[in-house]
């Protein structure tokens, strides 16, 4: 290490120097022709765009987008904060409500990796609990395990397992943790099971926060747009912390079109198709000796345990890119995003061709995204 590099490193806080950076699906730099590794929508949007006013600063919270999303979520506009993806919502909640080197957040593992990375970045401790406790434990047991954690993150449906925490349990946890912790329900995949949304709890429980995104069912992963939904008393301090101009005018224009009533109708039709294709994929996996265990759950993905971890390399050799990662301490798990019919046909070809174990080593798995 050069002297200049050593000097720069010495300036880093200890929590940043020790931080393991989040590794997204796209950061793995894989090559292929069929991409089913990032839970993206296979549907491209047609957008009309005007860029004539880029010389002006945008509205910090574009009113048309806020109003339309509030209507979609059946909330009031004051309950909606627009962010740069749901990831910024996670960061804002940790930064606003947690005191570094003092507070902790509770997670139910395995789950989305950015909760931990964000907490680590802000020197906030991790209270690592389990999905088994969340799903099977009593409310009293969960509350005892949460302890003094300031934020409780529930990914619902959970990534990567697809499991659902019943709304009655979310409600009971919010009641038990009132005045003690925020219960944050990350609904990145809720459009695939909308009847399970916790948004109806927001008006009744001041400590319930819901995170949303346009990256999945709304087919706008490249736009980086999300929403934090909560009572105004919860959002007010976050509004003090958020950047002065977090949403570009271009992003606001695209988002407004994406959540117009006719666009929402189109999104719901696409979700119906994707759920149907997912059911077909599950049938294929159930019939294939390549899958030892299948976690179907909800969301636009299926997670499975491979009979031979080298099958992933076989897929890559065919140009089929899926998400390999370590789960439950085992490095032979794979998550398949639900693509269009043609893309899933490539999965079928891959499965049908697995007559014998491959010989190439598996590329190492990373955090879930």
From TrEMBL:
Reactions mediated catalytically: L-histidinol phosphate + 2-oxoglutarate = 3-(imidazol-4-yl)-2-oxopropyl phosphate + L-glutamate
GO MF annotation, one: histidinol-phosphate transaminase activity
Ranges of residues in domain Aminotransferase class I/classII large: 45-346
EC number(s) given by UniProt: 2.6.1.9
Required cofactor names: pyridoxal 5'-phosphate
Pathway membership: Amino-acid biosynthesis; L-histidine biosynthesis; L-histidine from 5-phospho-alpha-D-ribose 1-diphosphate: step 7/9
Keywords assigned: Amino-acid biosynthesis, Aminotransferase, Histidine biosynthesis, Pyridoxal phosphate, Transferase
Protein family per UniProt: Belongs to the class-II pyridoxal-phosphate-dependent aminotransferase family. Histidinol-phosphate aminotransferase subfamily.
Subunit structure: Homodimer.
Descriptive protein name: histidinol-phosphate transaminase
Source organism: Pseudoalteromonas marina
Gene: hisC
């Amino acid at each position: 290490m050069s002297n200049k590099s050593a000097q720069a490193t010495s300036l880093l806080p200890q929590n940043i120097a020790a931080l393991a950076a989040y590794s997204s699906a796209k950061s793995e730099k894989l090559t292929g022709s069929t991409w089913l590794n990032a839970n993206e929508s296979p549907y491209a949007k047609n957008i009309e765009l005007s860029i004539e006013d880029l010389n002006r600063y945008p509205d910090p919270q574009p009113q048309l987008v806020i109003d339309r999303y509030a209507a979609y979520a059946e909330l009031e506009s004051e309950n909606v904060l627009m962010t740069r993806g749901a990831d910024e919502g996670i960061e804002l909640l940790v930064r606003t409500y947690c005191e570094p080197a003092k507070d902790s957040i509770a997670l139910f593992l395995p789950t989305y990796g950015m909760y931990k990375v964000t907490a680590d970045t802000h020197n906030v401790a991790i209270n690592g609990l389990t999905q088994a406790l969340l799903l099977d434990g009593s409310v009293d047991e969960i509350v005892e395990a949460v302890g003094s954690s300031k934020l409780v993150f529930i990914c619902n449906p959970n990534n990567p397992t697809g499991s659902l925490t019943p709304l009655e349990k979310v409600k009971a946890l919010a009641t038990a943790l009132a005045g003690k912790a925020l219960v944050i329900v990350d609904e990145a995949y809720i459009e695939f099971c909308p009847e399970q949304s916790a948004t109806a709890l927001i008006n009744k429980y001041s400590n319930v926060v819901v995170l949303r995104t346009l990256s999945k069912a709304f087919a706008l992963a490249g736009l980086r747009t999300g929403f934090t939904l909560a009572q105004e008393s919860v959002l007010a301090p976050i509004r003090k912390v958020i950047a002065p101009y977090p949403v570009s005018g271009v992003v606001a224009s695209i988002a407004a079109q994406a959540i117009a009533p006719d666009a929402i109708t189109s999104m719901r039709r696409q979700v119906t198709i994707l759920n149907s294709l997912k059911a077909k994929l599950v049938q294929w996996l159930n019939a294939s000796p390549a899958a030892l265990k299948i976690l179907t759950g909800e969301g636009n993905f299926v997670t499975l345990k491979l009979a031979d971890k080298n099958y992933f390399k076989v897929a890559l050799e065919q140009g089929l890119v899926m998400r390999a990662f370590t789960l439950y301490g085992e490095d032979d798990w794979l998550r398949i995003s639900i693509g269009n019919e043609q893309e899933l046909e490539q999965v079928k070809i891959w499965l049908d061709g697995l007559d014998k174990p491959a010989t190439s080593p598996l590329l190492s798995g990373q955090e879930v995204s």
